[in-house]
Write a structure and sequence with these properties.
Blueprint (H helix, E strand, L loop, with lengths): L4 E9 L2 E6 L4 E6 L11 E7 L2 E7 L5 E6 L2 E7 L3 E7 L6 H14 L2 E7 L5 H9 L1 H5 L4 E3 L8 H8 L3 E5 L6 H8 L3 H11 L11 E4 L7 E4 L21 H4 L37 H15 L5
Parallel strand pairs: 3-5, 8-9, 8-11, 9-10, 11-13
Antiparallel strand pairs: 1-2, 1-4, 2-3, 4-5, 6-7, 12-13
The protein binds guanosine-5'-triphosphate and zinc ion (ZN).
């Protein structure tokens, strides 16, 4: 084997990926052999092979996120500093999708940030903001944003500076608008990447790593669509510990393997639906219902 070079995977499609070297140069690479399959964000060592490159080694990952396709769970991004869940006053967001994204981030050990866009819409914005109150109480940062009016853009910038942030959001919340606003020439970069990956028709279907700054310190990772987050790598009994509001009440149950659903002497259930003004450990009823649904889903998952 000749010399190898350091790089980072900035886009991946099937067995092809685009690797960026420390000098900013990008090269199309393939994994060597069956091993070494990569995801966006991976740090790799690669070697020259004609005009292209071969991935020789995938360096140890700080963290890894999974997405769910049908019944399979696939990894799709690694080495992230935070996950930004973009929601909007309109369309109305799903509490379940939000919970899944936050649980996936927590399980991967990645900080999460909720951003609520379309501040200019007034009443619908206030309603959506109120629905996010349980999240503010459990300590998740929730930022208001108005991409149309630039409301909150500076505060968001400050949160993104120097970090690599995966952006997720359901359709219509303004994700493309946000990426285009924060990444100079995002469109041109996308075109370049899809040409390099030879997937011209798939311009928006690959997860892509974009630099927000010329110094390449702040990155946005855009993943198309709102990923149905893969939670199948988790076990039902872990779930309560991955939900900060539920986690805060743990430790007082009579049974150490309490599922917090029907056991006597549960220390969590008495906090469900209480008034946050008098109970600092109050658990929102919707969150508790989602916990039950996810618990059943994980308990019933197929074993391979
Ligand atoms: N009122 C209002 N509309 C906004 C704001 N930001 C974005 N929009 C609009 O919301 C719509 C969706 O924006 P996009 O950026 O295309 O949203 P997206 O999340 O990428 O949606 P998909 O393309 O479906 O994935 C567009 O019509 C935007 O103009 C905002 O702050 N206020
Ligand atoms: Zn319990």
């Amino acid at each position: 084997m000749g010399s190898t070079f350091a790089g980072r995977v900035v886009a991946a499609h099937g067995r092809h990926c685009l690797v960026e070297g420390d000098d900013g140069q990008r090269i199309l690479c393939h994994p060597r052999g069956k091993k070494n399959s990569v995801v966006v964000g991976d740090r790799v060592r690669w070697s020259h092979s004609g005009d292209e490159g071969l991935i020789e080694q995938v360096l140890e990952r700080d963290n890894l996120l999974y997405r769910q396709d049908e019944m399979r769970t696939k990894s799709f991004a690694a080495n992230l500093d935070q996950v930004l869940v973009l929601l909007a006053a309109d369309p109305v967001f799903s509490d379940m999708q939000l919970a899944r994204a936050l649980i996936a981030a927590e399980a991967a050990g990645i900080e999460a940030l909720i951003v609520l866009n379309k501040h200019d819409l007034g009443a619908p914005f206030e309603q959506a903001w109120a629905r996010l109150e349980p999240h503010r109480r459990m300590g998740t940062p929730v930022l208001p944003l108005g991409l149309k009016t630039d409301h909150g853009l500076d505060a968001l910038h400050a949160r993104l500076r120097g970090r690599s942030t995966l952006v997720l959001g359901p359709s219509g919340v303004g994700k493309s608008t946000l990426v285009n606003r924060l990444v100079p020439e995002a469109g041109a970069q996308t075109g370049e990447i899809s040409r390099a990956l030879n997937s011209g028709r798939h311009t928006t279907t690959t997860t892509t790593w974009y630099w927000m700054d010329a110094e390449r310190q702040s990155a946005l990772i855009d993943s198309p669509g709102f990923q149905a987050f893969g939670l199948y790598h988790l076990e039902a009994p872990e779930l309560a510990r991955l939900m900060p509001d539920l986690r805060a009440t743990l430790g007082d149950c009579r049974f150490h393997n309490c599922t917090h659903r029907h056991e006597p002497g549960c220390g969590l259930r008495p906090h469900v639906g209480t008034d946050p003004a008098s109970d600092p450990l109050a658990i929102d009823e919707t969150r508790y219902r989602l916990y039950g649904e996810l618990f059943d889903e994980l308990a019933a998952k197929p074993t391979y």
